[in-house]
Amino acid sequence: MVDTLRVLQWNAARSLAAIQSITPLLTANNPPHILLIQEPPWYQIGSQPSLTDPDGTPILNVPSLPGYTPCLPPATQPRVVTYISRDLPTSSWSIVGAASYGTDILTIEIRSTHTVRLCNYYGQQPTDRQNHHPRYPGELFLESLPTPLAITLTVAGDFNRRHHSWSDLTCSNEESRKGQFLDDIFRGHGHQPAHPPDLDSRPLPGASRCPIDMVWAAPNLVPELICDSFASEDTGLSDHLRLTWEIPIGPFTHPPRPPRLTNEHQEDWCSHAFPPLRVAFELPATDHISLDNKALAIQTAMAEALQALTKPRKHSKKEVPWWSPQCATALAAIKTANTARAKGIARRAFKRTVRAARRHFYSEQVADAAPYNIWSWAKRGLGIRPTPVPSLKRSDGSFTTTEEEKGELFKSTYFPPPPPLPVGGFGQRRPPPTSAPPILLKELKDALAGTSNLSAPGLSGVGYRPLKWVVESFPNEILTLFNDCLRLGHHPQCWRAAKVVMLRKPNKKDPFSPRSYRPITLEETLGKLLEKIIANRLQYLSNTRGWLPPNQFGGRQGHSVYDAAQRLLQIVEKAQSEDKVCSILAVDIQGFFDSVHPHHLHQRLLELGCSSDIADWCLSFMTSREVAISFDGTTLPSAQKPDLGTPQGSPISPILSTLFAGIAIQLFNYPGTDLLAYVDDHLIVMTGNSVLSNCRELAKAYHQLDELFGTIGLKIEATKTELLHFHPPRKVTGYHGWDKTGVKLDDNTIIRPSIPLRWLGIWWDPALSFKPHVERMRSKGLSTLAAIRLLANTERGMSSIHLRQLYSACVRTVLTWGVPVWYTGNRQKTLVARLQAVQNTACRWILGVYRGASPLSTNFLCSLPPFEFYFNYLKSNHALRLWRTPHSVGRRRITPSHRPRPFSTSLPDRVPKVQQVPAYTHEPWVDPLAFAGNRLTFAIPSGTVSKEQRKAAVEAAQAVCTPNSIQVCTDGSRLEGKGGSAIVALQGPTKLASKLLPSPARSTATDGEINALTAAPTFAASYLHRYIMEVDTVYFLSDSLAALRLVQDWPSAPGAHQLLGWKAGVQTLLDFKPDLRLVFQWCPGHSGIKGNEWADEEAKKATELPADPSPPSISALKEEATNQLMAKWSHYLTRPTLSTADKYLAVSGPPSRRPHPLITMSTSHPRSELSAVAQVLCAAGPYGGYWLRMSADYRHRHGLISHCRWHNHPPWPAQTTAHILGGCETFQPWIQQVWPKTAPQPAHHSEWADRTRLPVLRKWLKATGHLTRPSARSTAAIKLAFATMELDGHPTDEDMDLATLRVYVRRALGPRTQDADPDLYEPLASLPSFPPEP
């Protein structure tokens, strides 16, 4: 509980060390609640990418203080910043007013028993000597304050003014004249100086003693401020004193924060929630009101159980983990320094100490980063910092002053009143009402399985984790509740109240515009689960019944952004092949998701043939909604939302929005045009004989589309419309001025061509060269890489495996965006090389090697294939997806009969037919295994199998051999490129029957396992029918976890189409005997289980059968594409035309897509050691072999030694990589650890790049000190030694005597003292005088 506000006021003089010196106060027993800082330091925390500046524009920020939130005025690099302690509840303070007064002032309002406003003020230095000087921004603010003030205001800061009435200290008449204006303002408002009269806030030699750092307060606060609370301190880090004072404000406490539930809370939470839940589930739900009451009772029971586990928040002492005793000692030395020179030395020492302490702490934190928190470090590198929402600017130019006003502005901006409902529809017939099938338990469990426990909850705070506990214990009750909602066509009112979190949009430079924030709706998880189920049903109906037009590529199963882009590419290339001109007009719908009218959508669903239950539920879901605006940790009270729009963040919003706009897209039929759409991105494509005719027709098509959208209440935003003409052939008439001819929409709006044009994240240019796209992706990738490169260097930082993960997720995805569309493989080497250069830079950063390292070796060690081959791999996978999808519009792209330029992909030639994958195998509301009931069970372990689970599985497989059961064992095999599978039936130790099954020519071993498992039920049924055996259980045993899990998850698994025959066999087998039970069980392979051994032998025999003529599977073709990628990469690494620089390659064996052993070792060893290993393997590091690439003059000028420093006798060999690993005397005992004396010695150093030898190499490099950077003093001594040796006539080239060099270096260093730093004294990388033993 806080009763008194402790305030610290200080002009930091732009000193980072000054801000860091506040750290001891933050860890004290009574830390300040508010820090009023003037002239804060600014430093770079990231960069903003741009095409003209690959490094990006620097992103600056003020220093962060643990436990404090920085608040800044609305300006670039303002001169005041206010830090507010998180001990103050976020609901008790806000940034108010003064948003138009620039960089000099910031007002914070604090609310408790009474309200106080603290104004952080900085006054500019007066420059004129006239009686009337211009008003500065802060003075304009003070002048604009009303008289009298309605709220108590305290103004504190650096005023840069003096007046004789403000202090007992002396002040000149000239200074008083300049401060008279402020004195008049403060006296006019009744303010008084609250600082001591003898305060000297800037004790500088020769300066006036009258203070300029002051506190002005209302009369009722002055006694409390002055009374025993004002203190000042000279820290020596700024030319201003640090002032502290207090304000009595009254008590306020933090609201309790619900705990983040884990599995450890399950028992306690369930004990509080389940008793009231049982009562709530018994409530009736016969109408809308009773259903609302029942849902509210369930929601309340879950929320109250969460509140029961919530404990009151206590004040916790802040910790600054990087602050060390050395920092405290260095800070104390500044205060005890007596002279100006001593203070300057102490300040520099303090800065070095703090810098070293912070570097050491954060290096350890980054190096120990776990996989789950590396993304938080990546955000820090990208310059992402949470900042509070400032005063927002209204349309009339005024600014908000309270949190309530901000919330109202957000609400009016994103939830405006709905426009008048358009009269009538499109004249389609409305079918009679129908009822939807009830929701199944499988639908409920499948929807819940796709949720994350980390998803943000709604207003009640109940997340998915406790909801899973409820569904696990009360599945039928939840299912009944959902079916009541569907039956009544009603979404409970408590689920329509949502929290709307305002998040800052990226790359928005104006934080004061409400449009710079994106509203994210957080709904109640229980209601969200019902939305997922109905969204899945609407997806199915839309895709199977043609509810969406074919040119709408969003919201469809089996379609992606690339399909729409491929379709555009088809149209453009076809037009060029026919000597026609193609023009595109990209249109943007204003507030697409927020403009969906619920009644129009309800009518649209009924016209499409949707059941009236679902249509009525959708209408109820979208109407009478309530929103609670939330920002900066403050959630405002819920308010009624206009009945318009779908909530962004809801799983059902995308499909509802696309269905709503689908009718307009479907009715658009302007001649000669094509309309392409991906959710809310629409593109009008016009093909004609000239650019001018295209522009005229595009204008007419635009108006037709605008009229269609207007019929359903949507509006095209003309200011965001873009135009592009694709480069027409020269022989087409009317092509002159094609790059300037625009589309005239009306008398005031002409759309000029945008070159290039961005659509679906791809930059399109008139010549279809995609050079602008590649340049932008390269620029974005470089800037992202530059940001995350702050996390590691060659000596310290994050482990290489985590850096590789960050690069793959944050950079490579950017570089490869759009590759299936723009990459052809012909005449694109320059484009690929531009992107490959970014990956080469990333690989050097991941490994910690020098820039001279060969890209071949760095790509190999990072297991990142070159883009030259990786792009073909991505292209093949995309083609596979198109081929396997029935009636895919993008399939024509693979066999382009009209493509004017060469197109390269080998996939169509080698895959004339492929397995067609249906989008759905059954209706979502139908349980395909309902006939099995509880007679079908699975005994399959989940997750990674441990040794204990494997042992238990072996024992369970051996225990199934009972007299009243039979065992059916399946297995698949692949030998010498041929596949096969087998089924073996046995009873006890007796083998009953077996069957061999051939596999297609292109298949995998897993395909064989799936084929055998699919045919096993049919095989068992035929055997039982033939011999009429009396059995009660049939056990199906397989050693393939992948195949068994596919069966267990059928039909929701991705490969469910492969098991349609399995379902028929199971049904036939169960029909054989009413009480027959089927058990599918995993048995570990090669574990001595007789049936599994027999199945393995039979499967190997099946590989000799003729191949099955059926089409190859998708998994086989994907594996083939991967094998082609690795084969091309391996051939590239071993080609005979390697350049001289690539002769030293760390290539050991064929390349792999799995992380290299050097990468996997990075989590258990310091980065400096593994960087040294990588530098040796890549022949690029701080050692002689790398220095040999430079000239002798360069080596002498920079003090670089190219000879091996471990030989004690001449001749001194060059310290090349081959010498270090093959000829260095100190390494021979270490070699014997992994190479016995009888084995041949390593012929090439690349043989060390494997899992067995790398640890030995690392230990030797660490023990000998190879690749250790010499200190600055050592380098200077070596430079001096080189120069002295040349003057004395000693050779300094390859014939140099290393012993003589050591003598000269020791002479240059001078005598070694007892307290000398060994790293500074030893000239030759601080090596001991004898080789270490292994």
Helicity, in percent? 25-40%
Structural class: alpha+beta
- What shape does the CA trace take? globular
Number of helices: 43
Percentage of residues in DSSP E strands:
5-15%
Mean pLDDT: 80
Strand count: 33
Radius of gyration: 37 Å
Strand order of the largest sheet: 5-6-2-1-14-13
Uncertain stretches: 128-133, 889-912, 1313-1333
Termini gap: 62 Å
Give a quick account of the main beta sheet: strands, pairing sense, barrel closure: 6 strands, mixed
Structure description:
Helix 13 (464-473) crosses helix 14 (475-488) and helix 29 crosses helix 30 (1041-1048). The strands form eight sheets. This protein has a six-stranded mixed sheet. A six-stranded mixed sheet has the order 7-8-9-10-12-11, with helices on one face. A six-stranded mixed sheet has the order 28-33-32-29-30-31, with helices on both faces. It contains 43 helices and 33 strands. Residues 128-133, 889-912 and 1313-1333 have low confidence and may be disordered. By secondary structure, the protein is of the alpha+beta class. 39% of the residues lie in helices and 14% in strands. The longest helix has 28 residues, at 340-367.
Entry summary:
This protein is α+β, with helices and mostly antiparallel strands. The chain is built from 43 helices and 33 strands.
Task: Summarize the SSE layout with pairings.
Blueprint: E1 2-11, H1 16-20, H2 23-26, E2 34-38, E3 43-48, E4 57-61, E5 68-71, E6 80-85, E7 93-96, E8 105-111, E9 115-122, H3 137-144, E10 152-158, H4 173-188, E11 192-193, E12 213-217, H5 222-226, E13 231-233, E14 242-252, H6 266-281, H7 288-308, H8 325-336, H9 340-367, H10 374-381, H11 403-414, H12 441-449, H13 464-473, H14 475-488, E15 497-504, E16 517-522, H15 525-544, H16 561-577, E17 581-588, H17 598-608, H18 612-622, E18 626-631, E19 634-635, E20 639-640, H19 653-667, E21 673-678, E22 681-688, H20 691-711, E23 722-725, E24 743-744, E25 750-751, E26 757-759, E27 762-764, H21 771-788, H22 800-815, H23 819-822, H24 829-847, H25 855-862, H26 867-884, H27 907-910, E28 936-939, H28 947-958, E29 965-975, E30 978-987, E31 990-998, H29 1005-1027, E32 1033-1038, H30 1041-1048, H31 1060-1072, E33 1077-1082, H32 1090-1102, H33 1114-1133, H34 1157-1160, H35 1167-1177, H36 1184-1187, H37 1192-1198, H38 1217-1222, H39 1228-1234, H40 1254-1264, H41 1272-1287, H42 1298-1309, H43 1318-1321
Parallel strand pairs: 1-2, 9-10, 15-18, 28-33, 29-32, 32-33
Antiparallel strand pairs: 1-14, 2-6, 3-4, 5-6, 7-8, 8-9, 10-12, 11-12, 13-14, 15-16, 17-22, 17-23, 18-19, 18-20, 21-22, 24-25, 26-27, 29-30, 30-31
Helix pairs in contact: 6-7, 7-14, 8-9, 12-15, 13-14, 14-18, 15-19, 17-18, 17-19, 19-20, 21-22, 21-24, 22-24, 24-25, 26-33, 29-30, 29-31, 35-40, 41-42
